[in-house]
Write a structure and sequence with these properties.
Layout (H helix, E strand, L loop, with lengths): L1 H53 L3 E5 L2 E5 L6 E3 L2 H9 L6 E2 L14 H4 L3 E2 L8 H7 L3 E5 H14 L2 E4 L4 H4 L5 H11 L3 H22 L6 E7 L4 E3 L6 H9 L3 E2 L9 E3 L11 E6 L4 H9 L2 H4 L2 H4 L3 E3 L3 H4 L3 H15 L2
Helix pairs in contact: 2-7, 7-8, 8-14
């Protein structure tokens, strides 16, 4: 009897020992599995976080606030000529651009070769939203004037960046165009390219200034011949005249106002006292008016006209807002001076 009881207790102890070992192994396996699952989950979260960082959108501040844009922008629609200039300056060709009415609804001439193939999406005063929608751009660049009419419509098509001056002080800053150029360059991570192009331009300007500022007779009047009026541009408040008078070193004529553009009658034309006349002839009505002006003895008797010191410019008023256009202006002015 005692032997039987002893055997029963020994058997129970063995069973309990086996159960205990099984529970311990199961617990260990479970802990290992849990640890492995936790590490995998952590690694997955890390990979997801890295993936989000790689595709994170940029945020661009502009006149309408802040707008997120894709990391890699490929198709751009630009609705102002200076923005075409800025894009091409950094080696980016716009997919869509506005046409210029004074050029027969075509590309702006000084950039036409580089814009070949870009879709024309209306004009600044009449944007063709359907054309822009067909392009399916990554972003749209627009000035505050055009944005005042169609910003909400543009935003429905693609992220829209509104560029331009936010104050009169900025608006009258002749170098403000550089801020727009740098903001566009930031979109494409090409600030270094933009800075290089600005430096190249400044070098050309400095070289030209050495020649022009030391000319014996360098008084200049810049005229705009419109359909029914002759306008004379001021010494400041426009990037074109700032380049001519401040950067290149021409002296303003007697009738050139420091800040205000004014209308001239033929009777006061002889009072200009200009050694050189640069002028723009507007396409609408300008050629007829200019022809009539040239027939006048008051014009013919001007010293600048008699000396053939008159340069008919290729819409410098537009060119002055970008590095490509300003470079062409400097080269054209130097070609004129060296004749």
């Amino acid at each position: 009897m005692k032997i039987r009881t002893y055997l029963i207790f020994a058997l129970l102890a063995g069973v309990l020992l086996l159960v205990g070992c099984s529970d311990t192994e199961g617990s260990t396996d479970s802990e290992e599995n849990n640890t492995e699952n936790t590490e995998q989950a952590s690694e997955t979260e890390s990979n997801d976080s890295n993936s989000e960082q790689e595709t994170e959108a940029k945020t661009i501040s502009h006149l309408k606030g802040e707008t997120e844009i894709p990391e890699n922008v490929e198709k751009v629609v630009a609705l102002r000529p200076s923005y075409f200039d800025h894009l091409l300056t950094i080696g980016v060709k716009p997919a869509g651009v506005t046409a210029q009415a004074q050029y027969g609804g075509d590309y702006i001439p000084y950039l036409s070769d580089q814009l070949e193939g870009a879709e024309i999406v209306g004009s600044a005063s009449e944007v063709n939203l359907e054309k822009i929608l067909e392009i399916n751009p990554d972003i749209i660049l627009v000035d505050d004037y055009t944005a005042s009419e169609v910003y909400e419509d543009l935003e429905k098509i693609a992220p829209t960046i509104v560029l331009g001056a936010s104050s009169d002080e900025e608006r009258n800053d002749p170098d403000f165009w550089q801020q727009d150029l740098m903001k566009i360059a930031k979109i494409f991570d090409k600030e270094d390219v933009a800075e290089e192009k600005i430096a190249e331009l400044e070098e050309k300007v400095a070289s030209a200034n050495e020649t022009i500022s030391n000319m014996e007779n360098n008084k200049l009047a810049f005229l705009r011949i419109r359909e029914k009026v002759i306008q004379i541009y001021p010494e400041t408040t426009h990037p074109m005249v700032s380049l001519l008078y401040n950067d290149l070193g021409f002296e303003p004529s007697a009738l050139t106002d420091p800040e205000e553009r004014g209308d001239l009658s033929m009777e006061v034309i002889p009072e200009m006292g200009a050694d050189h006349i640069f002028l723009q002839v507007d396409s609408s009505g300008g050629p007829e008016n200019y022809s009539s002006i040239q027939d006048s003895n008051l014009w013919k008797d001007l010293e600048a006209v008699e000396n053939e010191n008159v340069l008919k410019t290729d819409f410098w008023i537009y060119k002055a807002w970008g590095a490509i256009g300003r470079t062409q202006m400097v080269e054209e002015a130097m070609e004129y001076v060296k004749q």
